[in-house]
Write a structure and sequence with these properties.
12 strands, single chain, mainly beta, five-stranded antiparallel beta sheet, about 35% strand, disordered C terminus
C-alpha cells in the first residue's frame, strides 16, 4: 500500500493560462498508487472555516482518495486509523490550493478531513469505491487524543453528522496494519503531533 503523499503536477502555461494532467493512472502506478478510481466527488463550501471530516468508509466499501482543491485553499488532514499500527492516531496536515494544484493521495485505512482557508472553496476527489452510507465511519474533528492543530479563528462550520462522530478511544477500527509505518507527508502546514 502507498502511504499518504502529496503529488505535484507539471503545469504548462502561456498567455491564455495553463494546462495540466490532473489524473494519469500510469504516472500514479509508477509511484506505487494502483487504485482503480470509480467515482468523483465535488464539494463546495461557502464559508471560510468549513470543516468536513474526519471521514472514511469501512470494508467492504473502503475507499482510497485522491484529493485536490480546484477553487480557493484548504488545509487537508489524514489520520492513521489502522488497528495495531505503531502510528495509530497520528495525523499530518498539508495545504492544498487551486494555485499550486497539488493533490493528496489518502489510502484505505486513513481518515480524511479538511478545513477551508478561503470562502467559496471547491474540492474534487476521486474515490476507489462507491459511496456506501451504511459503511460511513469516522472520528470527531476535535478529539483531544488526536489534538489536531486546526488553523481556525473560532468554531468551524460543521454538518450535524460531523458533530456526532466517534472519539478515537471509542473508534473500533476495521482496518489492519500492513507493516508500513505512516511517514510525514510532503507539504506545508502545521506539523503533526
Amino acid at each position: 500500500m502507498q502511504l499518504p503523499v502529496c503529488l505535484a503536477h507539471r503545469r504548462f502555461g502561456d498567455s491564455r493560462g495553463w494546462f495540466t494532467e490532473s489524473y494519469n493512472a500510469k504516472a500514479l502506478a509508477e509511484q506505487g498508487i494502483e487504485d482503480r478510481f470509480v467515482q468523483d466527488n465535488h464539494s463546495y463550501s461557502a464559508a471560510r472555516g468549513t470543516l468536513r471530516g474526519i471521514h472514511l468508509q469501512a470494508p467492504p466499501s473502503a475507499q482510497a482518495k485522491l484529493v485536490r482543491c480546484v477553487r480557493g485553499a484548504i488545509w487537508d488532514v489524514v489520520v492513521d486509523l489502522r488497528a495495531e499500527s505503531p502510528t495509530y492516531g497520528r495525523w499530518e496536515g498539508t495545504n492544498l490550493d487551486s494555485d499550486e494544484g497539488r493533490q493528496l493521495y489518502v489510502p484505505v485505512g486513513f481518515g480524511h478531513a479538511f478545513v477551508t482557508l478561503t470562502p467559496d472553496c471547491e474540492v474534487i476527489y476521486k474515490v476507489s469505491d462507491y459511496y456506501a452510507p451504511d459503511c460511513e465511519i469516522g472520528v470527531i474533528w476535535n478529539d483531544r487524543e488526536l489534538a489536531i492543530d486546526w488553523p481556525l479563528d473560532g468554531e468551524p462550520e460543521l454538518s450535524a453528522k460531523d458533530r456526532e462522530l466517534s472519539t478515537l478511544a471509542a473508534f473500533d477500527s476495521p482496518f489492519s496494519y500492513d507493516g508500513q509505518p505512516f511517514e510525514k507527508i510532503l507539504g506545508t502546514g502545521p506539523d503533526s503531533q
